[in-house]
Amino acid sequence: MTVVVGYLAGRVGPSALHLGVRAARTLKTALIVATIVPKAWPTPSMARVDAEYQQWADRLAADSADEAQRYLQTLADGVEVSYHHSAHRSVSGGLIELVSEVNADMLVLGSFPGGRRARVLIGSTADWLLHSSPVPVAVSPRQYRSHATRLTRLTCGYSATSQAVDVVRRCSELANRFGVPLRVITFAARGRTMYPPEVGLHAESWVLESWAAQAWEMLDRLRTDGVVSDDVVLQVVTGNGWQQALDTTDWEDGEILALGTSARGDIARVFLGSHSGKIIRHSPVPVLVLPG
C-alpha cells in the first residue's frame, strides 16, 4: 500500500509533493513519485528520430526525479520515497496502471498552473483521472503549503440528500483510517439568477434560508440514525456564490475536503455534478474525490 504522486518537472510545482508527503505520513505508508512520459507511436521513422525521442523522454524523467528530490529533501522526513518513470500512450493511463500495480491507497495530483480565479484548476489529465481512478484522487490547490506535518481533519462535503448518506459513511471510515476528526458540512450558494430582479433579494434569501433549514434536518438525521457519532461536527455554510461559501468556512491547517461522486455505469467510473465542480475550483484546501 502506498501513495502515488504524479509529477512532471516544470509543470505544477511542489504543491502535490507537499500533499503527498502529508498523506503518506498520515497513512503511515510509502510515497512513490511517478513521471509518465508520452510513448512514441509505432509509425515508420528514422532510427535517429526514435533515439532522440528516447533521449528526450529519459531526460524528462530524470529531471522530474531530480526536481522532486530537491523539494522532498526537507519535506519527507520519516517517509520512504521512491521514484518511478514509464512511457505510456497517455499520462492518465500510465498513472492508473501504476496505481493498480502497487495497490495504491491514493493518487495525488497538483493543480494546473493556469487560471486566475480558481484555486484548484483541473487539467485534462486530472479531469480524466477524477472520473476513472479506482482509488481516491487528491488534488492540491495552487501554491499549497501547510505547517502541519500530516493531515489534521477530514471534512465531508454532504449534499443533504438520502443518496449521499453512503458518502458520509465512507468519509467516516476514511477519517478513522487517517486517525483524524470528521466534520460533515453542507454548502449552499445563492446563484446569480435565482430569481428575476423584480422579485427582490428577499425572496432569494428566504429560499436560501429555507434550504439551509432543510439541510440542518438532514444533518441531524445523520446523527440520530447512527451514521455519525456525537463527536462529529455538523455544519451548514451559505454564501453569495460558491467562493464566498468556501471562504467563510473555518478551515484547519492540514485539513482535506472529501467529496463523493455518483456512479455512471460503463461510460465512466464517476460523475461529478456541477456543484462538486464549483466546490473543487474554489476550495482553499486539498480536495479528495472518492471513486463511485
Relative helix content: 25-40%
Order of strands, main sheet, comes to 3-2-1-4-5-12-9-6-7-8
CA-CA gap between termini: 20 Å
Kindly identify the CATH topology of the largest domain: Rossmann fold
Domain UspA: 2-139, 153-291
Pfam families: Usp (PF00582)
Protein name: Universal stress protein
Organism: Mycobacterium shinjukuense
Write a concise keyword list for the protein shown above:
single chain, Rossmann fold, 2 domains, ten-stranded mixed β-sheet, two-stranded antiparallel ribbon, 23% strand
Architecture overview:
The protein is of the alpha/beta class and 292 residues long. 39% of the residues lie in helices and 23% in strands. The chain has eight helices and twelve strands. The radius of gyration is 21 Å and the shape is elongated.
Produce a short descriptive summary.
Residues 2-139, 153-291 form the UspA domain. This protein is 39% helix and 23% strand.
Secondary structure elements and their pairing?
Elements: E1 2-6, H1 15-27, E2 30-38, H2 47-72, E3 81-88, H3 91-102, E4 106-110, H4 124-132, E5 137-140, E6 153-157, H5 165-178, E7 182-189, H6 201-224, E8 233-239, H7 242-247, E9 255-259, E10 262-264, E11 268-271, H8 274-282, E12 287-289
Parallel strand pairs: 1-2, 1-4, 2-3, 4-5, 6-7, 6-9, 7-8, 9-12
Antiparallel strand pairs: 5-12, 10-11
